[in-house]
Design brief:
The chain has 236 residues and is α+β, with helices and mostly antiparallel strands. The chain has 2 domains: 9-197, NADH Oxidase (3-Layer(aba) Sandwich); 203-236, no CATH class. The chain is 38% helix and 12% strand. It contains 8 helices and 4 strands; from the N terminus they run ααβααβαβαβαα. It has a 4-stranded antiparallel beta sheet with strand order 1-2-4-3, with helices on both faces. α1 (7-19) crosses α5 (130-148), α2 runs antiparallel to α5 and α3 runs antiparallel to α6. The longest helix is centred in the N-terminal third of the chain and has 19 residues, at 64-82. The protein is globular and about 60 Å long. The two termini are 27 Å apart. The structure holds flavin mononucleotide.
Length: 236
């Protein structure tokens, strides 16, 4: 199967990439149909993984009581993290909407199980974190597939993993990697919420691409692409 993508297919892919958003405040109450949710999960399950270890599991959560407990953990952690920043940032931080735990249709906890196919996993012995990187690849597939299906997704990391493990009865050796809120949305914002409220700007691509070595922003061998990147090429 080495077919090229048609121009329409390429456009579809980039549309998903550029219009994907982290959604917290635009969830609608209607449920996600099971076929759509299973397609999204199947896309996640086809992510790359170190040594093909597929170290993920997806815990699907609808129960309101469970979600209320997770929301309590969020409230506690948010209060705790607010003490780490000074005013006026603190007040701004506390005014941000940073979760959709109860307002979304479904929550999904994505976990990492280092014992799957273990202990020897090809490629994981030098950099053990590659197991977690693999789970993050699955999460990104899930996020893009959700966007493609018109489903919004918000990642909530202001949570205690200890709380999550207790609430969801996750075994000791398994690590919660992401707590995701999914649902239909009234809109996908054009820009990240944190950009819109002036929390942080998007960096320029030209400032994050180095040539040949760390921090080298200029190298004659890379002149052409560098010009394109610097001149903010219209990628459409
Ligand atoms: C690892 C990770 C953790 C995140 N945790 C939170 C969170 O706790 N609450 C929240 O509102 N957004 C969270 N986000 C979403 C980011 O704030 C968001 O991706 C970023 O602002 C860029 O916006 P965009 O995803 O709409 O492009 C998280 C994203 C990632 C990748």
């Amino acid at each position: 199967m080495n077919e090229e993508f048609s121009q329409d297919e390429k456009n579809g892919f980039y549309k998903a990439v550029f219009s994907r958003r982290d959604v917290r405040s635009h969830f609608m109450p209607e449920p996600i149909d099971d076929k759509t949710l299973s397609k999204i999960l199947n896309a996640a399950h086809h992510a790359p993984s170190v040594g093909f270890s597929q170290p993920w599991n997806f815990i699907l959560i609808k129960d309101v009581e469970t979600r209320k407990k997770v929301k309590e953990s969020f409230d506690d952690e948010r209060k705790r993290s607010a003490t780490l920043v000074e005013d006026p940032k603190r007040t701004k931080y506390l005014s941000l909407r940073l979760e959709g735990i109860l307002s979304s249709a479904v929550n999904v906890c994505v976990t990492y199980d280092p014992t799957k196919f273990g202990p020897f996993v090809i490629g994981r012995s030098s950099i053990p974190e590659t197991g977690i990187y693999s789970v993050c690849c699955a999460i990104q597939n899930l996020w893009l597939a959700a966007r493609t299906e018109g489903i919004g997704l918000g990642w909530v990391s202001i949570l205690s993993n200890d709380d999550l493990k207790k609430i969801l009865e996750i075994p000791e050796h398994v690590v919660p990697i992401a707590y995701l809120c999914l649902g239909h949305v009234s809109e996908f914002a054009e820009k990240p919420d944190l950009e819109t409220v002036g929390w942080l700007p998007r960096l320029d691509l030209k400032d994050v691409v180095f040539y040949e070595k760390w921090n080298s922003l200029d190298d004659p061998t890379w002149n052409q692409i560098r010009q394109m990147i610097v001149s903010n090429l219209d990628y459409a």
